[in-house]
Amino acid sequence: MVKYKTQELNHIFHALSDPTRRSILRDLGGREKTVGQIAQPYRMSLAAISKHLKVLEMARLIDRRKEGSHQFVRLNPETLKTANEWISYYEQFWNDRLEALRNLLEEGDST
Amino acid sequence: MVKYKTQELNHIFHALSDPTRRSILRDLGGREKTVGQIAQPYRMSLAAISKHLKVLEMARLIDRRKEGSHQFVRLNPETLKTANEWISYYEQFWNDRLEALRNLLEEGDST
DNA sequence: TTTATATTTAACCATATGGTTAAATATATC
DNA sequence: GATATATTTAACCATATGGTTAAATATAAA
User: Fold this and answer.
1) Residue A85 has what pLDDT?
2) Do the Cβ atoms of A18 and B25 come within 8 Å?
3) Number of domains in chain A
4) Chain A interface, best mutation among B90, B93, B96, B103, by max A CB count within 10 A
5) What is the mean pLDDT of chain A?
6) Are the CB atoms for A75 and B94 separated by under 8 Å?
7) Containing domain of residue A48, as a range?
8) pLDDT greater at residue A111 or residue A44
9) Is B1 a member of any domain?
């Protein structure tokens, strides 16, 4: 059984709760981009994008690679897996419990 | 392909970003509880728990059933599925892209 | 060395968040 | 009706969030 670190999950889910950040992650699919390239489609300032990237980085949803004056930003899909595992675990857990509850109720009805 | 509603995802991920709320969801596994029962293990006030429940309700992660002066709160696992689907979709999407990228690079190396 | 480009940091602002205590509301019970 | 119980709402507070513009920093290019 996986042990989830509270802080880690706080950061991941918080990062995912903002539509701009989800959009950035989406745009990053599989290829590296510079900060400028990431910012380009958005109407907000570069400073704002920079902050969003910091939040994504804190959550370890992205990695950065510095090369001269540019930075290359890329996804870290491993982290998304953490969130996925947390959710999947509880989803399963709850579904099992709910089913157990249903069975119990049926039993009560039929006897 | 599923279409995810922005607001819905905002609410779900925001709700999940707080450890108290995740803990409440965990405690609710499969059985209904009253607000008082939910609050019991926590050191914070009932008012604070009430607010957390409102956030979870807004995200449709829980449902409520009123019965006299009590309320029964229960999970809505359907919503967790929404979050799970979003994450799984992008995880897959990214992994595919990353693999494509890797293949491309290998090709470049070997020829 | 100057200048242009890429990115972050600082200072600021309005609103949201997560908590508190006290008052309000709704139902149950005496 | 009066009182106890369950829960929410209101008012408040400190800190966080998501944005802005302007200044700072770092590298590249002339």
Assistant:
1) 84
2) no
3) 1
4) B90
5) 84
6) yes
7) 6-110
8) A44
9) no
Position B102 confidence tier, pLDDT thresholds 50, 70, 90: low
Q: How confident is the model at residue A98 (pLDDT cuts 50, 70, 90)?
A: low
CATH of the domain at B102: 1.10.10.10
Residue at B25 is within a domain: yes
Q: How far is A45 from chain B (nearest CA, A)?
A: 22
CA dist., res. B67 & res. B82, Å (int): 29
Within chain B, strands assigned E span 62-67, 70-75
Helix H or strand E encompassing B20 = helix B19-27
> What radius of gyration, in Å, describes the C-alpha atoms of chain B?
20
Identity of the residue numbered A107: E
Q: Quick one: pLDDT band at residue B108, thresholds 50, 70, 90?
A: very low
Instruction: Tell me, yes or no, whether A103 lies in a domain.
Output: yes
- What the block records as the tokens of A48 is 């704002």
